[in-house]
């Protein structure tokens, strides 16, 4: 072990005998009491010394071996101690790729803050490279999401869309001006590859060539879709277990860890069709909605099939609140769409960034705030608000279960308020 204090957490003395690591309340930790000798020892924890050398230098500071053991234990329990060498063989392979690691150092540093165990940040970054995500849509929002996911280390990012790139699809973090007139799937494939920090993991023996069909842009060839993102139990929101995140899609092809639904038509996000999500519900594939409609940004819900409210639940809840909603929705879906959507570039970029961050949190094994909820912000004030999307007792997805039916019977299942 070569322990080091996590460099992402800036140290500062709160007083004569207390050191605070970290600036923000979300992750800051205070350590005390710390005397002068212990403070000097802390400066030695930079990852260049093994335990035998640290014990030797501690003796030179008149610190006992027991004191060192207790101190290191406390630092580890507080999530302040890191050790990149303890991240496992997959992380060792990544660590030896200097160019890739230099691109990913800020991401690894961020992961080290939220992953308390030594080597946790690098281990999670290595795990990202084994995940497969599909982004449905290559407009201003979808293409930017795919670019961010690829750049953040997701090993395989596929983008599905049709038609050819239009001028209004272009965005700084998405499709470039040079892609105008080109097939969207081809342009998306190039964008994803250009955004990736390096070549993806090698395909394992017997694994099929996955995205060799029109409409799929990919980065890398991740080998396992279960990963951390599949660690949830259908029917029990928030519960976690080792299960896959959907079936494999071909001979030896990895399962999808997540589908991000970001169509160019924002109505398909604001009021998603339940039948479109039916196959994802049936296969148990988590999916996250994100888009812009009429200068309103939408992120969520993240749907965990059998555990949280789905597109069908959302539609049923709306019909409960507004009996005219189904009539209007049918008109909007069947009516003629405008040639150019009202999709402000800054808002689209904000939506893409928030959606990508929530997707990465889920892939890393957490349940972000969009799980069973949706976040909205409208121009010009951009006041982000959260709306819970609970399971509906009449939805065929089965997420409501007995508890959901009981809640609906008492009126508690209606989702009719916006909570900030």
Describe the protein in words.
The chain has helices at 36-42, 51-60, 65-77, 89-95, 98-114, 120-128, 140-151, 184-195, 267-270, 274-283, 311-321, 325-334, 345-363, 401-409; strands at residues 4-5, 11-13, 19-21, 29-31, 81-82, 132-136, 156-160, 258-261, 287-293, 296-303, 373-378, 385-388. It is an alpha/beta fold. The protein has three domains: 4-82, Outer Surface Protein A, domain 3, CATH 3.90.930; 85-123, no CATH class; 129-409, NAD(P)-binding Rossmann-like Domain (Rossmann fold, 3-Layer(aba) Sandwich), CATH 3.40.50.720. A seven-stranded mixed beta sheet has the order 7-6-8-9-10-11-12. The chain has a three-stranded antiparallel beta sheet with strand order 2-3-4, with no helix packed on it. Strands 1-5 form a two-stranded antiparallel sheet. The model is unreliable at 204-249 and 402-420 (pLDDT under 50).
